[in-house]
């Protein structure tokens, strides 16, 4: 948590609050940059544009694949439609079968 310095407390008012917020934003940006540098955070799910980027296709092509049942089924998280990154990798490694075939492959693997 970012707290006010003595100087910020003595100045009081909105300027002090702005200074605290600016410092908090800088600290958060530094943390995000550190995580990005060391790769300690792995993305688990991606939206349609993210899935398209992973596979090197356009967003519209990805959505056509999805609507025609030619890729893994998405998951819903609240109002968001997402695809599990690990499943996308496995799907591609399996030769990018249709959704129906992919579900059968996954069911066989679970046995």
Tell me the strand order in the biggest sheet: 1-3-2
- Helix content class: 55-70%
Gyration radius, in Å: 22 Å
Number of domains: 2
Q: What is the count of DSSP helices, taking H or I runs of 4+ residues?
A: 6
Question: Can you count the beta strands?
Answer: 3
H/E topology pattern: HHEHHEEHH
Strand content: 5-15%
Largest sheet: 3 strands, antiparallel
Low-pLDDT regions: none
User: Distance between the terminal alpha carbons, to the nearest Å?
Assistant: 48 Å
Mean pLDDT: 83
Helix-strand layout with pairing:
Layout (H helix, E strand, L loop, with lengths): L5 H6 L1 H26 L6 E2 L1 H8 L3 H9 L7 E3 L2 E5 H9 L5 H12 L1
Antiparallel strand pairs: 1-3, 2-3
Helix pairs in contact: 3-4
How would you characterize this protein structure?
The chain is mostly helical. Helices cover 63% and strands 9% of the residues. It is elongated, with a radius of gyration of 22 Å.
Name some characteristics of this structure.
single chain; 111 residues; mainly alpha; 2 domains; 3-stranded antiparallel β-sheet
What does this entry show, briefly?
The chain has 111 residues and is mostly helical.
């Amino acid at each position: 948590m970012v707290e006010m310095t003595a100087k910020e407390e003595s100045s009081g008012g909105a300027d002090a609050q702005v200074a605290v917020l600016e410092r908090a934003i800088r600290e958060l940006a530094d943390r995000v940059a550190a995580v990005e540098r060391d790769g300690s955070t792995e993305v688990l799910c991606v939206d349609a544009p993210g899935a398209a980027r992973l596979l090197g296709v356009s967003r519209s092509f990805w959505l056509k694949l999805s609507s025609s049942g030619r890729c893994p089924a998405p998951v819903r998280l609240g109002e968001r439609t997402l695809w599990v990154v690990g499943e996308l990798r496995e799907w591609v490694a399996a030769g990018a079968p249709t959704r129906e075939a992919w579900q059968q492959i996954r069911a066989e693997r679970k046995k």
